[in-house]
Design a protein that fits this description.
- The protein is of the alpha/beta class.
- The protein contains eight helices and ten strands.
């Protein structure tokens, strides 16, 4: 599976190793040493996936993610030195779909990119139109809209997560099930990915995200969609 990858990383050695590893997997790679340069390259080349280091000079990776999210639903993987800090959650809240930690394993990075590219389109087995609240989900069209016709912007990962919940209304899906179905892996998955994306979805589909009526948490079990 080929695709265009944008790498934003200020460390030249890491940037070079990422480029070589991804080119070895068949990807077309462009790389930038700063967030500002990365945004310029993104506007020029429209990559399929962006890899962004969080600790960048000048514009940091968080702001770079937010800037991309204001105009694009492109899958974003953040690169961080440590996975046990608030940086991961903050990066996901800024709009990232996934993360990898340094030092990373090239094969794992390539696997995560393949998973992101595979879910670029809704799966054929997803349900037909689902209506809940003032929203209508159209999986086959890749559309979430309000009943007045206004479209609700979602990233690809947010949309796929909502489709998985909608495929089994009122049924609890565990974090592990959602990781496997949405992110495409479970053996190195992180439940924080699910939790942060659920929070992001609630800000878009719930009248009051603090008191959700449709995307509910079932303590100790997981999440469910109540139409």
């Amino acid at each position: 599976m080929s695709g265009r990858i944008l790498v934003v990383e200020d460390d030249e050695r890491i940037r070079s190793s990422m480029r070589l590893a991804l080119e070895g997997e068949g990807y077309e790679v462009r790389d930038a040493a700063s967030g500002e340069e990365g945004l310029d390259m993104f506007a020029e080349s429209a990559p399929d996936v962006a890899l962004i280091d969080l600790m960048l000079p000048g514009m940091d990776g968080f702001e770079c993610c937010r800037a991309l999210r204001r105009n694009s639903a492109v899958p974003i993987i953040i690169v961080t030195a440590r996975s046990d800090t608030h940086d991961v959650v903050a990066g996901l809240e800024a709009g990232a779909d996934d993360y990898v930690t340094k030092p990373f394993v090239a094969k794992e990075l390539a696997a995560r990119i393949r998973a992101l590219l595979r879910r670029a389109r809704p799966a054929e087995e997803e349900p037909g139109a689902v209506t809940f609240g003032d929203l209508q989900l159209l999986p086959e069209q890749g559309v979430l809209r309000r009943l007045n016709g206004d479209e609700v912007h979602c990233t690809r990962t947010e949309f796929r997560l909502l489709c998985e919940l909608a495929a089994s209304p009122n049924k609890v899906l565990s974090r592990e099930q959602l990781l496997d179905r949405v992110w495409g892996y479970d053996y190195f998955g992180d439940g924080r990915l699910v939790d942060v994306h659920i929070r992001r979805l609630r800000t878009k589909v719930e009248a009051d995200p603090a008191v959700p009526q449709h995307i509910l948490t079932v303590r100790g079990m997981g999440y469910k969609l109540v139409p």
